[in-house]
Design a protein that fits this description.
Blueprint lengths: L2 H13 L15 E2 L10 H18 L1 E3 L2 H9 L3 E3 L4 E3 L2 H9 L4 E4 L8 E4 L2 E5 L6 E4 L3 E4 L2 H13 L3 E3 L15 H12 L11 H15 L3 H6 L4 E4 L6 E2 L1 H12 L3 E4 L4 E2 L7 H22 L5 E4 L3 E3 L6 E2 L3 H17 L3 E4 L9 H17 L3 E3 L4 E2 L4 E3 H17 L7 H4 L1 H7 L9 H4 L17 H6 L5 H14 L8 H16 L8
Parallel strand pairs: 2-12, 7-10, 7-19, 8-21, 11-13, 13-15, 14-16, 15-18, 18-19
Antiparallel strand pairs: 1-7, 2-4, 3-4, 5-6, 8-9, 16-17, 20-21
Helix pairs in contact: 2-10, 2-11, 4-10, 6-7, 6-19, 7-9, 7-19, 9-10, 11-12, 12-13, 13-18
């Protein structure tokens, strides 16, 4: 094959893949952010926030509401007030602990083709998660259930830009809370072969999730310890508190070499100071505290710093997302995180109640924060509505379109001799056109991004087709994807071991709950 044909074939493979008859998507590939990080604060301002957050840790402290965690920190030389449960973190301790955190690592999937490279310039997108409700045009907004949960898993498996479900896309409340994590873990391994998540809602759920992930990969406990295979999100109880379940999650995941994404929930004006500088300072203090615990438990444990600082509507107190403040905070957080040389988790979020224009433009603002801030792990990349209370099937499709467009935006421009097209200019001549040139004919199928959702027909053709708007088209696309879903192959021996573990734990009653 000539070099020109190799380049053309490569572009065709990269640009678009007609995977199914009814929808077009980008082929699976590694996404790399080729842009230079943007800076919204100066180096001096980064240092000011860094030093202020260390001052918070040393002099105000973090409430650590788990005796085991306080014992670990006390043994590491930190000042602990047992009456208030507040720990005062020495800044040298924090910086030494963070020096052990890896800058890059791999989260291993049951199918190695879906391994996620975390850190550096790598970007992975995770489906929206932890929503109590789901919605679509047909059934409206409804309480989360297992049927919808499984539909979202099928979409996560089917779309190439989605690297992982990121958690429960919707909470299946028709499964009792004591065994929900077991049934969901089995569904993760059955309906997808991408990396799973475990919720840190008590030690037993963590241990069950770790074991199910190990079984799904068909590996030993020793290999699981060396190869991170699932992740958890730890939300600090802002302001300045880590509760028992979250701390148990940090400890157990770190002990077993699994990934902790430490994410303070710092909404400026509500759970953090009303100024962005103050909110970022508090976010940084809480994140460093949680990650330092992980490093104390197991130096070198994989951690990701989660930035989720946004603002609230000061008229109502409701969270606001996809705002200019959110995007600035996302970019500034990237600057802070690069100071510690660890991976960065951010999100694609909005505050709209339905998948409308507001949802689209606020999500676009959030995605600019992802790209310009150099996020590595993008939580809630698809489906998020209503400030995180609803996962929308149509919004999943809208977001996949936006993510694919961002991915193409990050693809470098080809400036090879052939791509510059001088021969095509000679062939077209002065005042001619390029439709029939050899240069165009060799590239027209793969030259440009092929949309999943956007409708590029002229008005007459669109009207003849019934004038479908984007929401109507997204509704049909998600149904088409579900209709053409193919379950990943699961080794019968793995399925048997997984079922045996889950069924045994269910028979034992799962985990204790409050009801």
């Amino acid at each position: 094959m000539s070099e020109e044909k190799k380049r053309t074939a490569g572009r065709r493979s990269r640009r678009g893949s007609r995977v199914k008859a009814s929808f077009t998507q980008l082929p699976k590939r590694k996404f790399v952010n080729t842009f230079k990080p943007v800076e919204v604060i100066s180096e001096d301002q980064v240092e000011a926030i860094h030093n202020a957050s260390l001052d918070v840790l040393e002099n105000i402290g973090i409430m650590v509401r788990l005796e085991e965690a306080r014992d670990i920190l006390r043994a590491a030389g930190q000042k602990v007030d047992e009456d208030t449960h507040i720990v005062y973190f020495d800044r040298e301790f924090i910086m030494d602990a963070m020096s052990h955190a890896p800058s890059e690592f791999t989260i291993h999937a049951p199918n190695p083709d879906w391994n996620m490279e975390i850190g550096g310039d790598n970007v992975v997108f995770a489906m929206g998660a932890s929503m109590p409700n789901s919605s679509d045009l047909d059934g409206g907004r409804r309480t989360g259930n297992q049927t919808d949960f499984r539909k979202f898993l099928k979409l996560a498996q089917s779309f190439n830009v989605i690297a992982t479900t990121g958690g429960y896309p919707v909470e299946p409340v028709d499964i009792h809370a004591s065994i929900r994590h077991l049934e969901c873990g089995r569904d993760f391994a059955t309906f997808t072969d991408k990396p799973p998540n475990v919720y840190s809602l008590g030690r037993d759920r963590n241990l069950d999730g770790i074991e199910m992930a190990r079984i799904a990969r068909g590996i030993s406990h020793e290999q699981m310890l060396r190869e991170p295979s699932l992740f958890t999100v730890i939300n600090s109880n802002s302001p300045l508190m880590l509760d028992q379940p979250m701390l148990q999650g940090i400890i157990e995941m770190a002990r077993h070499g699994q990934v902790v994404i430490l994410t303070p929930f710092t909404l400026a004006g509500a759970m953090a100071p009303v100024t962005l500088g103050g909110a970022l300072t508090q976010q940084n203090a809480e994140a460093l505290a949680g990650m330092s615990i992980a490093q104390t438990v197991r130096p070198g444990a994989p951690v990701i710093y989660g930035g989720f600082t946004s603002n609230v509507d000061m008229k109502s107190g409701a969270p606001a997302f996809g705002t200019p403040e959110y995007t600035k905070a996302a970019i500034a957080t990237g600057q802070l995180i690069r100071r510690y040389n660890i991976p960065y988790r951010t999100s694609n979020v909005n505050a709209s109640n339905i998948p409308d224009a507001q949802a689209a433009y606020e999500s676009q603002m959030a995605l600019w924060g992802v790209v310009l801030g150099h996020g590595n792990f993008v939580k809630h990349a698809t489906g998020w509505l209503e400030g995180g209370l609803t996962n929308s099937f149509e919004k999943v499709v809208m977001d996949v379109e936006m993510i694919q467009m961002m991915a193409e935006l990050m693809t470098p421009i080809d400036t090879s001799v052939e791509a510059l097209g001088l021969d095509a200019m000679r062939e077209a001549g002065h005042g001619g056109h390029f439709f029939g040139t050899q240069h165009t004919q060799e590239r027209y199928e793969s030259a440009f991004y092929s949309p999943l959702l956007s409708d590029w027909r002229n008005f007459e053709s669109w009207a003849e087709a019934g004038s479908p708007d984007a929401l109507t088209r997204a509704n049909q696309i998600y149904k088409d994807v579900l209709a053409e879903y193919e379950a990943p192959k699961l080794d019968p021996a793995i399925r048997e071991e997984l079922d045996a573990f889950v069924d045994r734990r269910i028979a034992e009653g799962g985990v204790k709950t409050d009801f």
